[in-house]
Write a structure and sequence with these properties.
about 400 residues, abc type-2 transporter like fold, 4 strands, about 5% strand, 4-stranded mixed beta sheet
């Protein structure tokens, strides 16, 4: 009987924590609405305003009069590909450089002089490509487009040479001189992309799950961190020290209260993503719920740790923003994890949202979890954080 009474008291205290946190949220319905509909509105605007394709780079072609290459702009527009927008073909390199420096164009491709004679003599010519881009990503993209343009020009030169050779051979009476078309001689093969992914989502379909994971972590970290810091600065923790409440009950009560709130927001957000924005859902809802639960618990543990080491709400907010900044850069949200060095990559996987993004995208867009170790790592992160928070809070609440 005494054991049942003790269990009932523990449950009552835990429910008191849950009710207290929920009442605090109910007092600010505007904040709750912004937590639910704010990310959805941002993602909707993002999906409407971004199509996932890079804008073609305005390009100027310089063809010297002595190069022997065609000067018709349509010739180069046909071979440039979608990455370069051929604005004009000029002969003067200095005027082209002036337009590049003024920002009118972003790429200037300068053909070599006597290019045709150099080719006929068996030597290689150089196409100089000039850019004025401070963004390293844009500069690398421009270099890639320049390589593709050079390859396209090479194919066109080979095609024209093959066409002239076939014409001369036919005039000399050689049989079957034009059996193989010049286009095939210039480009014997071509690439055809075959994507075996279960679904190819839109831009918002791909980034939607990642945004959801990032929002859930930041919301969980910030809410529980501010709540615990507020309790400590207002003297509530001192009341807990002289009450029958133990440290693990405080941790469990805070986790349960905010986990319920985050889970409700996650459910509404997922419904908005799937039925409002058309994000694919190929996996099991139960598996997705488990992944979201692991992410929420690990994020709440991280926020609880921040609250314990912070001495004011300002410091808790600053640390939460640092976690958000690190999450944006190192979680795979902006840059793929594989592009980082091994030590940085290992550290990135210690951030809960890094594993959350990969797992949620796998469940929703592939229908299965390709890397089960990420789920186990996320569970381990949550367990270690909660254990550390319990030990630290127990030390702080030790009765004199």
């Amino acid at each position: 009987m005494s054991a049942l009474m003790g269990l009932a008291k523990i449950v009552t205290r835990l429910l008191a924590f849950v009710g207290r946190e929920l009442v605090e949220v109910r007092r600010r319905p505007g904040a709750l609405a912004s937590l639910v509909f704010g990310p959805f509105l941002v993602m909707a605007i993002f999906g409407l305003g971004y199509n996932g394709y890079k804008k073609p780079l305005p390009t100027l072609i310089v063809i010297p009069a002595s190069s022997g290459l065609p000067s018709d702009v349509e010739v180069y527009r046909n071979v440039a590909g979608p990455g370069l927008e051929i604005v004009d073909v000029v002969q003067d390199a200095s005027s082209a450089n002036a337009r590049l420096e003024s920002g009118e164009v972003e790429v200037v491709a300068i053909a070599p002089e006597n290019a045709k004679a150099t080719f006929e003599s068996g030597k290689q010519s150089t196409i100089e490509v000039r850019v004025d881009l401070a963004d390293p990503v844009q500069a690398a993209y421009a270099g890639l487009m320049a390589d593709q343009f050079a390859n396209a020009v090479n194919r066109e030169i080979i095609r024209r040479a093959a066409e002239e050779g076939q014409t001369k051979a036919a005039q000399n009476g050689l049989p079957n001189a034009d059996t193989v078309p010049p286009e095939v001689i210039a480009a014997p093969t071509h690439a055809e992309l075959v994507n075996i992914a279960p679904v190819v989502p839109s831009v918002i379909g791909f980034f939607g799950p990642a945004v959801l994971a990032l929002i859930l972590q930041h919301m969980a970290v910030t809410l529980i961190a501010l709540s615990v810091v507020r309790d400590r600065t207002s003297g509530v923790i001192e009341v807990f020290r002289v009450s029958p409440v133990s440290a693990w009950e405080v941790v469990a009560g805070k986790i349960l209260g905010f986990a319920f709130l985050c889970a409700a927001i996650a459910l509404v957000s997922l419904l908005l993503l799937i039925f409002g924005l058309g994000v694919p859902m190929l996996g099991s809802p139960a598996v997705l719920a488990g992944v979201v639960a692991l992410l929420i618990i690990a994020s709440l543990g991280l926020g609880l740790l921040i609250s314990i080491v912070s001495d004011s709400e300002r410091q808790a907010v600053q640390l939460s923003l640092l976690v958000l900044l690190a999450s944006v850069f190192f979680s795979g949200f902006v840059l793929p994890i594989s592009e980082f060095t091994a030590p940085v990559r290992a550290g990135a996987y210690l951030i809960p949202v890094t594993n959350g993004i990969g797992l949620i995208q796998d469940v929703m867009l592939r229908g299965e979890i390709r890397e089960p170790w990420q789920a186990m790592l996320l569970a381990a992160i949550g367990l270690v954080l909660l254990l550390a928070c319990w030990l630290l809070l127990r030390r702080n609440m030790t009765r004199a």
